Amino acid sequence: MNKKEIGMRMFALRTEHHVQQKEVAAVLGISPSAYCDRENGHVIPSALEVVKLAEYYGVGLDEFFRGGQPVLNMQDHSSNGYNVIHSQTVNGLSDELMQRFIDVMATNAAALEKLATVLSSKV
User: Fold this and answer.
1) Is it the case that residue 50 has pLDDT exceeding 50?
2) Domain residue spans of the chain
3) Which residues, 6 or more positions from 112, have their beta carbon under 8 angstroms from its beta carbon?
4) CATH assignment, 3-121
5) Nearest-angstrom CA–CA distance, 54 and 119
6) Global model pTM greater than 0.90
7) For residue 24, what is the enclosing H or E element?
8) Dihedral sign, Cα of residue 26, residue 22, residue 107, residue 71
């Protein structure tokens, strides 16, 4: 997903849950104008912000990034990774969407590692 698509997803989740930008900004610990920049696609949210948004809206990261797209389900297919991805492409999850998800996660890998460290220290 690119910045604009992530912003559109943020807008969709916020309006579905009937909350104002300032409420979500407070959850993220940023100003309402900084949140607006993310929702309008001018700034990409950090991995930590995406995790906070997913938790706030009660959705998993897969749901945050894919919206209504089908979920990859390894149990529904043979253990051959190609077959899993190929069958999901046929069922609606495009290669482009998968690549966008991979790109976003790679970009935010360092932040996710920091988050994992913080979360594991709290257990």
Assistant:
1) yes
2) 3-121
3) 47, 51, 105
4) 1.10.260.40
5) 16
6) no
7) helix 21-28
8) positive
